[in-house]
Amino acid sequence: MRRIYIFIAVMLFLTSCEKNSTENIPTLKLYGDALEDIGYSISMTENGYYIGGQFTEVTRNKANYIITDSSVKRMAVIKTDKNGNRIWKRSFGNNAAVGTKVLALQDGSVISTGYVLDTAIANQKDIYIVKVSADGLSSSERIYAEPGNQYGIDILQTAEGFMILGSTDQAREGIADSIGNASGKSDIYLLRIDNNLEPLGAIANGWPGNDQAVAIKNDINGGYVITGTTDNSWPYQDFTNIFILKTNLYGEPTMIKILGTTDYEYASDLEVLDDGYLIAGIVGNEESDQRVYLTRIPEDIFSSPIYTYKFKVSSAYSTASSFAVRAISRYSTDLFVLAGQAGTGTSAKMLIFVTDAEGKQVSGKEMITSATGIQVAYDVISDETDEIVAVGKNSFENNTMISLFKIRF
């Protein structure tokens, strides 16, 4: 009976997406079994997509009932064709594990980062990396175990291998309080590895307190640029603020700035432009009505922002008053597509909309689902045909499945 309900929910989802042209009917694909399966990342290949996230490895008794306490989350990697049809799926981790980011490689293989729970210390996270061949038949993996909690957030391919953006709560020593951090407080963590997944070096940095990175990109003139959220404040700022950090190729900081006001502000994602950076995020806590945060920063990050907007998405098809952006990607020639959720809690629906280069929402290029259940996008990309692909979750009753959603405005 539960599967019948899920089928009905999927049909409602497919027929209730607000769209601006009957010629561009949205496509939805779901992957998973039962309990909690979530897609956190998508990467494009020549002929399809890789999806990364988590599968729940479900345990059932002889009567085919799910034994929740014995079911374990695993790192998920799915390969699909351009239509979202599954080619293969793999799950990884001898202990509970989650994949936060996938990256398609030039040879057709894929690498995924995230974390695995330490088998020796309860609930301690270790950075976990898995590489999988294009056919899904062979893989290699590595756990990077250090004191405290570390987990992977994002990953880039480099000349020497890969740069992993992560988080650590290990104590950081310093000659002054301003450059140290206490154990248990989160820091920005950069781990360099070679193509064989062997570590080459690691750096933790940030301010005293909690700093949580969300995205890393190749910088305009070399090195890397990172954005995230900090609970530190500069004058005329308060609560949580967004930071932008520039590093050299070894992950050593070269420039860092806190952006923010007296609102709660959280970074979600980052795009590198020809002359600066576009940061997308969220204004407001989850229990309150949230707004979209969008700011364009010059290459010299200490210069004044070109613009900063805090706004609610305009949609003639939804009564939602809360909007949270989880990801941003280039779209068409000089536009950007953003994805996340409209509404909160059990009323959350998948949100996709487009802005221009000046940060203004483009009229007629927005979509908010209205089906029963919860739909959220965690990552979004677009291709040369202006087709938008978002990945996230679709929840109904006690089941959450990985969702791949395609639309062309």
Fold and architecture overview:
The chain is mainly β. The protein has a domain at 35-209: 6 Propeller (Neuraminidase), CATH 2.120.10. It is built from one helix and 28 strands. The protein has one helix at residues 2-15, and strands spanning 27-31, 38-44, 48-57, 72-81, 86-92, 97-104, 110-117, 125-132, 139-144, 150-157, 161-168, 187-194, 199-205, 211-218, 224-230, 241-247, 253-259, 265-272, 276-283, 291-298, 307-311, 323-331, 335-342, 349-355, 361-368, 374-382, 388-396, 399-407. The strands form seven sheets. Strands 1-28-27-26 form a four-stranded antiparallel sheet. Strand 6 (97-104) and strand 7 form a beta hairpin. The radius of gyration is 21 Å and the shape is globular. The model is unreliable at 1-16 and 18-22 (pLDDT under 50).
What does this entry show, briefly?
This protein is about 5% helix and about 55% strand. The chain has one helix spanning about 1-15, and strands spanning about 25-30, 40-45, 50-55, 70-80, 85-90, 95-105, 110-115, 125-130, 140-145, 150-155, 160-170, 185-195, 200-205, 210-220, 225-230, 240-245, 255-260, 265-270, 275-285, 290-300, 305-310, 325-330, 335-340, 350-355, 360-370, 375-380, 390-395, 400-405.
Contiguous helical run count: 1
Mean of all residue-level pLDDT scores: 91
Biggest beta sheet attributes: 4 strands, antiparallel
- State the share of residues found in helices, binned by percent: under 10%
